[in-house]
């Protein structure tokens, strides 16, 4: 690890760049094997989400500070700006579908999968849901490769189906987006992503979302599992873990980066939530990783 920031990519190995409206890209992991050689280091995509459907082989997939040892079939959905990477064995391959954020936003109402958080799922290959997902991903890959007339209309519908099948396979997806509470919580999460460094009070989030403190807290508990203050704290913790794990920045520098004026207070905050001081947590993760 020799960097002070987590790299942003367009597709892996290519610098981030502005995307066309409705941008969509489909390729296999093996297509870039001459770049990654089976080791895709931690990175993120600032303007697009990705479906990765593992069709063969095995490896380790990492999203933020979580990792899974998997054998195909396995699948993930990673929204934009989420840190991820993987290491795989020889002959391991996947279909990777990259979709611009604006296109994903248009699909949200047609998908069972909440598109604001990452999901990873694996399981027995003979389950009917895996067969459906495989068939849909193969159709997406073929439609993209052949570029037949009307693909621009067919592909978004197929991607919405694939996202819904991922939701059905994931034990973590219990409540599809679309309810009033889910929409309010999604708005909160987006605001927190933009402003967690700014120390906004709860009233500022309430005002920005044109709601009431009771409604916002109720939605946060129902959908995100905790109140607004805790949601903000967890977002700051996530960013701290990202920077500790994927960069060489000092604990003090990270504290200031995520909005703490006092590095000692940041260390207490981190220890209360993880049971370890930031430096000790970093050492443990690197030893395990």
Task: Describe the protein.
The chain has 289 residues and is of the alpha+beta class. It folds into 2 domains: 24-169, Regulatory protein AraC (Jelly Rolls, Sandwich), CATH 2.60.120.280; 180-288, Orthogonal Bundle (Arc Repressor Mutant, subunit A), CATH 1.10.10. It contains 11 helices and 9 strands. It has helices spanning 33-36, 101-107, 128-146, 151-169, 180-195, 202-208, 213-224, 228-246, 251-257, 263-274, 278-288; strands at 24-28, 39-43, 48-56, 58-63, 66-71, 74-78, 84-88, 93-100, 119-122. The strands form 2 sheets. The chain has a 5-stranded antiparallel sheet. A hairpin with a 2-residue loop joins strand 4 (58-63) and strand 5. Helix 9 (251-257) packs across helix 10 (263-274). The chain is globular. The two termini are 12 Å apart. The mean pLDDT is 89.
**How many strands, what sense, and barrel or not for the largest sheet?**
5 strands, antiparallel
Give the helix tally. Answer: 11
Span between N and C termini? 12 Å
CATH C-level label of the largest domain: Mainly Beta
Strand content: 15-25%
């Amino acid at each position: 690890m020799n960097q002070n920031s987590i790299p942003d990519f367009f597709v892996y190995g290519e610098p981030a760049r502005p995307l066309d409206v409705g941008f969509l890209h489909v390729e296999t992991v093996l297509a870039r094997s001459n770049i990654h050689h089976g080791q895709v280091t931690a990175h993120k995509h600032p303007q697009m989400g990705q479906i990765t459907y593992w069709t063969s082989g095995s490896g380790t997939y990492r999203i933020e500070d979580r990792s899974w040892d998997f054998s195909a079939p396995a699948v993930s959905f990673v929204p934009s700006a989420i840190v991820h990477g993987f290491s795989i064995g020889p002959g391991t391959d996947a279909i990777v579908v990259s979709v611009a954020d604006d296109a994903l936003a248009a699909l949200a109402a047609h998908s069972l999968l909440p598109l604001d958080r990452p999901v990873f799922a694996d399981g027995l290959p003979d389950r009917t849901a895996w067969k459906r997902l495989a068939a849909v991903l193969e159709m997406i890959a073929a439609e993209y490769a052949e570029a037949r007339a009307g693909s621009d209309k067919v592909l978004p519908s197929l991607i919405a189906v694939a996202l819904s099948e991922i939701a059905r396979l994931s034990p973590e997806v219990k409540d599809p987006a679309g309810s009033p509470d889910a929409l309010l919580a999604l708005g909160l999460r987006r605001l927190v992503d933009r402003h967690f460094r700014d120390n906004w009070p709860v009233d500022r989030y309430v005002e920005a979302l044109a709601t009431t403190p009771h409604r916002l807290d109720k939605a946060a508990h129902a959908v995100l599992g905790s109140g607004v203050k805790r949601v903000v704290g967890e977002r700051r913790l996530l960013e701290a873990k990202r920077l500790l794990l994927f960069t060489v920045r000092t604990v003090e520098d990270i504290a200031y980066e995520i909005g703490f004026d006092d590095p000692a207070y940041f260390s207490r905050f981190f220890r209360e939530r993880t049971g370890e001081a930031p430096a000790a947590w970093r050492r443990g993760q690197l030893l395990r990783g």
